[in-house]
Design brief:
Layout: E1 2-8, H1 11-27, E2 38-43, H2 50-60, E3 75-79, E4 92-97, H3 104-110, H4 112-116, E5 121-126, E6 139-146, E7 152-158
Parallel strand pairs: 2-5, 2-6, 4-5
Antiparallel strand pairs: 1-7, 3-4, 6-7
Helix pairs in contact: 1-2
Length: 159
Amino acid sequence: MKEIVFESNNKKQTKQIGKILAEELNNKRSLKSKKEALVVGLAGDLGSGKTTFVQGMAGGLGIKNKITSPTFVIMKKFRIKGTSSNKAFFDFFYHFDFYRLNSKKDFKIAGIESALREKRSLVAVEWPNRIKGFTPANFLKIEIIHKGLKKRSIKISFK
């Protein structure tokens, strides 16, 4: 497993790291051969910056909507349009929050299974560890660790 670690000194930097990651993922033409969505799992304590990172990802995909945590609605779905000069690889961006889920039954209700079948989708999941055994084939793990009041360590692990 490959791993890259970034240090962030504030929310702006955390968003920027998320933005750059999403831009890179959206430009990877080799992803076309995958049979299901690419899932980015975000782990970290409450207030570590998971939603801030996802806001950056959405910005990197050209999504203009205000991104808030879907803690109570569990899932939000956004269309990715691309630009005239840069065709987006992904068609949809899903943002899930598993914090309130407790079992595989909840997992099925949340709608993640249908999102995973959409091979041209990028799926961000906050709290993926809440569902035991949740590790889709195309899984990129992001772990955000508090290093002080505003500082964070952002570890990205690739399969």
